[in-house]
Amino acid sequence: MTTKSTTVEPTRVASEGTLVLVCLLAWALPGAGHLWLGRRQKAVVFMAALLIMFGIGLLLAGRVFSMDLREPLVALAAVADMGLGIPWLLTKMMGAGEGTVTAATYEYGNCFLIVAGLLNFLVILDAFDIGMGRK
Amino acid sequence: MTSHFALMVVFALLVSTVFAALLRDDPRQQIRTGAYMFGVFLAVALAFGWLMYPLPL
Question: Rounded to whole angstroms, how far apart are CA atoms A104 and A56?
Answer without folding.
Answer: 14
